[in-house]
Amino acid sequence: MISISSTSNLDPQLYKNDNNSVIFLDKLPKLSATSINITTPENKTYTEPMGGFYPATYGFENESDGTNGTDIGFVDSLDGGGSVEVISELTGHSKVIYYNTTANWQWANNSFELSQTSGTVEFWIRLGETNERHVIYLLDGSGGSISLNWWEDGYLKYDDRPDGIIETIESYNALQWYHVRIEFDLAIDWHLWIDGVSKDGGSGYGYDHTPSSFDEFVFGGSDSSNMWLDAVGYSWDTDYTIGDNLNEGLLLSYVNNIVLDWKGYSLDGQTNKTMMGNTTISFPTQGGLHTIQVFGNDSTGTMYQSEIRYFSIDITAPASMISFTPYNGTNEVNKSTTFTLTANDGVGSGVSVIRYKINDSSWIDYSAPFNLSIYEYGYYMIFYYSMDVVGHIEPENTLLVKLVEVQS
C-alpha cells in the first residue's frame, strides 16, 4: 500500500483561480495548518469509489442532515408548501433531498443563474408511490416547459401541448432509483434517456407550449406524494461533465475554522475548480498516486490552503509471467529445466504473492525457481497467478509442457 504522510513544508506552488489568473502561493501569508483540513479522501489506497456519493452540480454533500426548505442551497423557492429536507442516506445514495407534498400541486424550484436555450440536465430520482402524481419541469417565465409527469396510473408521460396530447413514455416502479438525462435545444426538440436508454429513439419530443429559454428546474407533486432527488448535474456548469453522475466518486470533505467567501480544489495540480463546500469528485480512472488540495479566500481577500493530501488508486490486478528455457522445441523440458515466475503491479499497491500448481496439486506460494524433477515423464499443466496488496487477483494463467528424458 502506498502511504505518504502529509507535510506542512509545502514546495512553492501556483494557485490558479477560475479566471486562470496566477498567484504564487509561497508569496502569500502562511496560515495555521488547521485553517483548512481535508478529511476525505484519506491518505490510503482506494480500490473502489466511496459508496453513495455521485459527482454533480448539486450533490448536497455540504448540507447538514435535516436542512430544510430554502435553507437548502438547491432550493430557491417553495410553491404551495410541502416539506423538503436533506437526509443522510437512502438505498445506496448519500445526502439526498426528500420532498413530501401535503396538498395538490406543490413544488420546489432551483433557479438558473443564466437562462438556457440548449443544454443537458441529468439527475437521480426515486418516487414513493405509483398512485400519486410526481413532476419534473424545465420551465421558462411564460409557462413553456419540458414537462415530465410520473402519473398516478403508474406511467411516465410528457405534455406535448401544441398538439393537445399527453404522451405516454413507459411504466415506472415506486421505490426504485432512476437516472434521468434530458437534452434540449429549444430551436428543435428535446431527448430523454432513462438509465442510459434512449426513450425517444433519437426522434425527439415536443415542448409544452413554446418555451423561449429555461430559467428553472422544478420538482414536486400532487396530494401526498413522496420524491427523492440526488446528484443534479447541469451541462452549463463548467466544473461538471455530463455523465459524471452515472457512477459513484470520491467524497472531498474538509473542515475549516474561518469563513470562506470562495472555495475550490485542485486534483493532481490541475487548475482549481470552484465548489460550494464538501463535494464529490469523479473516481480517478488512472491508477497510482494522486494529490488533492483545498483553497479558499475570505472577505478580505486573504488566501488559505490546506496541506496536500496524498492518496492512491488501485483498480487492476497485477500481471504475472513464467520464463524457462525449453530443452527442445517450444514446450519440451527435462527434469533440470528451471521455471521462474515474476509479477508486476505497475503503479498499483504492489505484488503480495505469486502462486502456482502442477496439474491438480495444491497451490504453492512461489518463493524460488522450481523444476519438475520429482515428476514422471509426460505432459504437465502449470497454473499460476498473482495477487496484489489490496487483494486484486489475476486470472489464472496456464502453461502446458512435456517432460522428456535427456537423450545421451
Structural key phrases:
Jelly Rolls; single chain; 408 residues; mainly beta; 7-stranded antiparallel β-sheet; Immunoglobulin-like; 0% helix; disordered N terminus
Structural overview:
- With 408 residues, this protein is an all-beta fold.
- It folds into 3 domains: 25-49 and 248-313, Immunoglobulins (Immunoglobulin-like), CATH 2.60.40.10; 67-246, Sandwich (Jelly Rolls); 319-403, Immunoglobulin-like (Sandwich).
- The protein is 0% helix and 47% strand.
- A hairpin with an 8-residue loop joins strand 31 (378-388) and strand 32.
- The two termini are 51 Å apart.
- 33% of the residues are buried.
Based on DSSP secondary structure assignment, what is the total number of beta strands? 32
The CA-CA distance between the termini, in Å, is 51 Å
Q: Quote the average pLDDT.
A: 91
Low-confidence stretches: 1-33
Broad structural category: mainly beta
